[in-house]
Structure to design on (259 residues):
């Protein structure tokens, strides 16, 4: 089977020494370059750098539809993503890992769906549970086995438009609505994966306190420092989690429009 991995820079060395080839995929939404890693006799990982080569694409300019469609066309049935996030929850501290189970969408100008009604059919997709329970479980088990630690097994991901950080007032609002972590790349990625019938889940690395939670200003340098510190742990956890992901054609994620 093939597992898609959508991540930022630093994950390229996930399987050092594994046979790797570059795949250029043409989709209806644009071309995508992906790395196919042969990690076992019957197991491949398709690594797609979310921000492009050299981390050159800002979050609001990412071609999310092309990315998800490319993974689908390459035969992926499950997708694991990583996200750097800020924390609004005092129990979730910088350096912690979180496997979210819900999301709140505060994006403003991104193409949000594959289904614009151009074929004359109006579709409504069920995202009651936006992340696949099976893939979330694999991430939790992977963390326990690889790192000997427990991550936060649930949390509400708030997706803001970016590329700016949020205001303190916005963070207060998100907290009142039940948000735990805030990032800029989780939506529409998760929704598009559901529309495509892919089993999708994300592991979030808390890289900073959100605006106004602490007296200090949010800095990009802080984000980079914490992400670099946890990169080796993240790679170990991802390898273990990917090994535990199984294909289940009967999973509810695979039937997003079923009654």
């Amino acid at each position: 089977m093939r597992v898609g991995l959508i991540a930022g820079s630093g994950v390229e060395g996930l399987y050092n020494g594994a046979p790797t080839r570059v795949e250029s995929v043409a989709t209806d939404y644009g071309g995508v370059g992906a790395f196919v890693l042969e990690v076992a006799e019957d197991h491949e990982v398709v690594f797609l750098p979310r921000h492009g080569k050299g981390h050159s694409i800002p979050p609001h300019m990412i071609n999310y539809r092309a990315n998800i469609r490319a993974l689908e066309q390459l035969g992926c049935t499950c997708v694991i993503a990583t996200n750097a996030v800020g924390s609004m929850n005092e129990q979730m501290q910088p350096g912690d890992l979180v496997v979210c189970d819900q999301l709140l969408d505060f994006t403003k100008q991104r193409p949000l769906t594959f289904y614009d009604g151009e074929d004359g059919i109006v579709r409504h997709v069920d995202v009651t549970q936006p992340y696949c329970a099976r893939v979330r479980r694999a991430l939790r088990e992977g963390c326990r086995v690889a790192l000997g630690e427990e991550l936060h097994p649930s949390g509400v991901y708030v997706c803001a438009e970016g590329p700016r950080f949020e205001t303190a007032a916005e963070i207060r609002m998100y907290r009142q609505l039940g948000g735990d972590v805030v990032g800029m790349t989780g939506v529409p990625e998760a929704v598009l994966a559901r529309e495509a019938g892919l089993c999708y889940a994300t592991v979030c690395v808390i890289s900073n306190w959100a605006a106004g939670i602490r007296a200090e200003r949010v800095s990009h340098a802080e984000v980079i420092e914490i992400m670099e510190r946890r990169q080796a742990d993240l790679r170990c956890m991802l390898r273990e989690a990917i090994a535990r992901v199984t294909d289940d054609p009967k999973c509810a994620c695979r039937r997003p429009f079923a009654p």
About this structure: The radius of gyration is 17 Å. The chain has five helices and ten strands. Residues 2-245 form a domain with the Rossmann fold fold (CATH 3.40.50.1580). The first strand starts at residue 2 and ends at 7.
